[in-house]
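Entry for the shared binder. Reason: the reviewer on the internal report wants the predicted structure included alongside the sequence.
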Amino acid sequence: METNVLYYGDNLRILRDHIPTHSVDLIYLDPPFNSKKEYNLLFTEPTGGASRAQVTAFEDSWRWDESACLAYAQIIERAPAQVSSLISALCSALGRNDLTAYLVMMTVRLIELERVLKDTGSIYLHCDPAASHYLKVVLDAIFGPRSFRREVIWRSGWVSGFKAAAKNWVRNHDVLLYYVKSLNDVTFNKQYAPHPPGYQRRGGGENPAGVALDDVWTDIYSPWIMSFSQEKLGYLTQKPIALLERIIAASSNPNDVVLDPFCGCGTAVHAAQKLGRRWIGIDITHLAVALMRSRMERAFPGLSFTVHGEPADIESARALFEMDAHQFQWWAVSLLRGQPTQPEKKGGDRGVDGRLVFVDQPDGTVKRVVISVKGGTTGPSHVRDLHGVCDREDALGIFVCLQEPTREMSAAAAAAGTYTSPLYQRTLQKIQIVTIRELFANQNDPRAALRLPMTQPFLPTARRESVGVQTELGIP
């Protein structure tokens, strides 16, 4: 089985097609909680300040639709009897609605996760109190009630204004449901926190290794409670790396395989790599996969890993465009290491799909670059639209197209004129046209295709990490 790999696609299909039975040592999953919210990916300015730029990363809602019906049928027809009976009873009692759609879609995936887990393995399902009681019953049916080990309470320390304003007790915790595959030879390395200052062991002598951690964790804070956090990547649902380090250190050993099937911004795979584990990450959006790829490349320079499911040639790039134009745009922007923008809305700039910057002045001042991506038929009018945006924003422009540019398109780009960088003393076309074919040829250095002196990667990231070093965990 291949490890140190990111998969783009539906995790149910990838689990069935690519992950063998009894091959994974530890599973951590942080699936959408069915909160009925849209979660945006937020960006920062190159100076580190806040930016208005954001894009919807995912919509946290589930609906009883054709996919839910298919998943329900698979459970009733193929799942173990206790699982199919439970899901049938829940759907009968609660109705076929958004909640039961969520439970059905989670159940088919949890069945596969139980299959791929080794007998010595563990699974941690991260959820909120609105869904944890339903998911625990599902996990009891799939893994068996005796496989339940703990309900870990994680107090993130982050209370949003919305939560604080509610006429209710302020919610400030998530739930981690911890199950094991079997009751024998389970991997578990007890974790400790330091004794409080001034602690003296009763009877004298040397202090033991510290205080054994219990199942209420209050010492690890969400990256969002500190504006200066180096971890913050723009995902409002991002979890702190110390949380994943604690889980991975406790329930796996070096060189074990860690799987996260709802990978998001990639904290689990980051922590796994840092602690010397092998890893598999899966997500259904190119936005998340691009973010994870950028995060791992920058945190672990020179690290070798594979990304599956992204287009590898012109034919597969065209197929992605025909399947989902927005995913195609996000993927193309990621090839440039750019920031994706929200899909076009009424009144917005036409054809702006991403942005990037490069340092342009000796004092660190940056020059902005606007990216426009076209996967279908295009022409000089689209190039001129980009020119107009660049004039308004005092920016350069990159026009990315799947087809080869026509002579008229090249003429429209040339008509935009040139720009000379004060720092590099290089003259650039204000509007550059680059094809997907050229980007494929320069994937290791997109600047070669762009002819830009330097680009700023598309998201802030944590500091560079050493590889395979297990440190003391979970201490504020």
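Summary line for the report: Residues 317-450 form a domain with the Trna Endonuclease; Chain: A, domain 1 fold (CATH 3.40.1350.10).
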